[in-house]
Design brief:
By secondary structure, the protein is an alpha/beta fold. Helix content is 40%, strand content 20%.
Length: 664
């Protein structure tokens, strides 16, 4: 090579470096903060921050956040490229989401945006790069969260985990699912294809066009490969790269996001994850057609898909050799996953708290409930019993996983709680159960968790539930007194408690058919199984009964009588005598005594009605505990309880199912 050529080469490289420097400066200047706080990763080397590029991602957003929150993501950084579909508004109220935006052309900044987010906000922690239509999975995820995965990688001396993109599709044509919501898509897209894979050696310089970005990466598996092809190659003729480096430790000398599919200067783990890819939803072919109309993508894959969809509107990815995704074992058998040594034996994360919230038309009360749980727990599951006030959508906007109960079956709180418990992963340790009209007090989760850690024989711990506005009505005040139960070993709890999931699963959860009193009945079975219940001296929740009318209080008390009768019918005999005394008092004071007085008046004359004076005397006697109002309402309440008892026995005699008695 002559001197002139060397000089020309040096000049060309200098110009290229200058161009890259100018581009990066232009990009950095284009990035603006939209909403959210930066992740707090101080001294958290095992924290995993999810980084995603997004443009009009509302279809996947809530499911995306719920999936990665369930895996234990510490924070999210959403890199927006001009969303106009409500994505930014939905993210504004997410406390664990930092939203950045650049409006430069996507193709010019894709790698820069990911790298900027990782290097600026994730130093010495881990970044999990995932597109909005990708759900990261790994062997052992049922018992080990993302932080445990990061610790296993660090123990191995690895700085990245390789993963396979696995295309997910339904059993039939794709077309009927293009306008269906994401939860239905996730349920239907349960198949993947294990074949048509081309495996190239990881450092193949001849056939991998981005080999130069892999050349400094170390591999632990001698035959590590980069995968190409798959079902999209068969159906559309795409030259898909199926290998990515989604999980990367952000520390020198690692170069994150050097390419949409890889990082540089990393040491790859012996394990391998997978990215479940839900590309063919949300009008996928319509988006491809629009992309082609605007000039298309450089690789031309959008044109290939659009052409096939136009030629065959009922195109399907399902073939005779498709496999059903039933969990990570299916991916292991297909060779799309590899176990990570050291993670498979990891114990369940002790003390990790998930939440099951139940509600119906709670509105602002539910918002306060969900907001009080932020930063306290790993996962929030909200079970909605047919709300008509937008509660379910509001819960999704706040990052909760939402379960809508089937309207064809009668609603009960017990059924709702069981549905939430069923949605917990196999490795769930502790669950905070809470009603949607309650708000968790600061410090409660830590205090209750400490109690369970100190007392392995205790299955359930509860604290002080108090009314938000006890002075607003005498009925609210009654509820506030009702919640103030004695501290120490207890026999029952209310709707709010921190519970060991294993203990609940041991006894089969709640009885679905109970319309009230399901918590004491569940506690009775826990005690029969050898567990203990404890009430600690700690503020637990703020409850908003919102009872301003006598009729509300009457219905609530009537429901209590129904619970007494049904609980007594189930466990009224020895040794429990469950709610025997309560049922007996309701029957005597609310039915037998009034009936006897009226019958006496008919037989012996109106003078017998003077015996009704026993009721104000009883109210006066009870007033010594909590005042005259409490005494009067407690006495009068026996009539409402008796009505509830009678309703239970009448329905039982007629073999009719009990219906929910609502007071709000």
């Amino acid at each position: 090579m002559g001197a002139a050529q060397r000089i020309a080469g040096l000049v060309a490289r200098a110009r290229a470096r200058n161009a890259r420097t100018r581009h990066r400066a232009t990009f950095a200047a284009s990035v603006r903060h939209v909403s959210g706080a930066r992740p707090d990763l101080a001294r958290r080397g095992d924290a995993v921050v999810v980084i995603a590029l997004v443009r009009d991602g509302i279809f996947h957003l809530h499911d995306f956040l719920a999936h990665y929150r369930a895996l234990g993501a510490a924070h999210f950084i959403l890199c927006d490229n001009g969303s106009t579909d409500g994505t930014l508004d939905a993210l504004r109220d997410q406390p664990d989401c930092l939203v950045l935006q650049s409006l430069m052309p996507f193709a010019a900044i894709e790698n820069d945006f990911r790298a900027h987010a990782a290097q600026t906000y994730c130093g010495n922690a881990w970044a999990l790069f995932a597109d909005m239509d990708e759900r990261f999975v790994y062997d052992g995820m049922e018992r080990a969260d993302l932080s445990a995965l990061a610790r296993a990688l660090m123990a191995e001396g690895s700085t990245a985990l390789i993963a396979t993109m696995v295309e997910m599709f339904p059993e039939g044509p794709l077309a009927p699912w293009q306008d269906r919501p994401v939860d239905e898509v996730r349920a239907a897209y349960r198949f993947f294809h294990p074949g048509d894979i081309t495996r190239l050696p990881y450092h193949d310089r001849d056939r991998i066009d981005f080999w130069y970005l892999l050349k400094d990466n170390r591999i632990r598996v001698p035959d590590e490969a980069v995968l190409f092809g798959g079902i999209r190659a068969r159906v559309f003729g795409e030259a898909c790269c199926l290998t990515k480096h989604p999980l990367v430790q952000i520390r020198p000398p690692v170069q994150a996001a050097t390419h949409p599919h890889c990082a540089g200067r990393v040491t790859l783990s012996a394990g391998m994850g997978a990215l479940l890819h839900y590309k063919f939803a949300d009008d996928a072919f319509g988006r491809d057609a629009a992309s082609v109309a605007q000039g298309g993508l450089g690789h031309g894959e959008d044109a290939l898909r659009a052409a096939r969809a136009a030629a065959d509107p009922m195109v399907t990815l399902h073939t005779g050799d498709a496999m059903a995704f039933t969990g990570t074992d299916a991916l292991l058998s297909a060779g799309f996953l590899r176990p990570l040594p050291g993670l498979s034996a990891a114990p369940a994360p002790a003390g990790t708290v998930d939440v099951v919230v139940i509600g119906r038309n709670e509105g602002a009360r539910l918002a306060a409930c969900l907001d009080s749980l932020r930063g306290e727990v790993r996962r929030i599951i909200y079970v909605d019993s047919g709300s008509t006030d937008g509660s379910a959508d509001m819960a999704r906007d706040r990052g909760a996983q939402v379960i809508d109960l089937d309207l064809s079956e009668p609603f009960t709180a017990a059924r709702a709680r069981n549905a939430g418990l069923a949605a917990l992963p196999a490795h769930a340790d502790l669950v905070q159960l809470i009603d949607g009209d309650c708000e968790v007090e600061p410090g409660w989760i830590a205090a209750a968790r400490a109690c369970l850690a100190d007392h392995p024989e205790v299955a359930l711990v509860c604290g002080r539930r108090r009314e938000r506005y006890p002075g607003a009505s005498p009925y609210n005040a009654m509820a506030d007194i009702e919640w103030n139960t004695p501290v120490g070993e207890a026999t029952a709890c209310g709707g709010d408690a921190l519970v060991r999931v294993a203990a609940l699963r041991q006894i089969g959860g709640y009885r679905d058919d109970l319309i009230a009193g399901e918590e004491p009945e569940m506690c009775l079975r826990l005690r029969d199984a050898g567990w203990r219940i404890r009430r600690i001296d700690a503020a637990m929740t703020i409850h908003d009964a919102a009872m301003s009318r006598f009729a509300q209080w009457w219905r609530r008390t009537r429901r209590g009588g129904h619970a007494f009768a049904e609980g007594n019918a189930l466990h009224g005999g020895a040794p429990h005598h469950h709610w025997a005394a309560e049922t007996r008092r309701a029957v005597i004071w609310g039915a037998a005594l009034p009936a006897a007085i009226l019958m006496g008046a008919v037989v012996w004359g109106p003078g017998v009605l003077a015996a009704t004076a026993v009721y104000p005397l009883q109210a006066l006697r009870l007033s010594r505990r909590h005042g005259m109002t409490w005494g009067a309402l407690t006495t009068l309440g026996k009539l409402a309880e008796a009505q509830g008892v009678a309703e239970y026995w009448a329905r039982r005699a007629l073999r009719r199912k009990s219906r929910l008695i609502e007071y709000k």
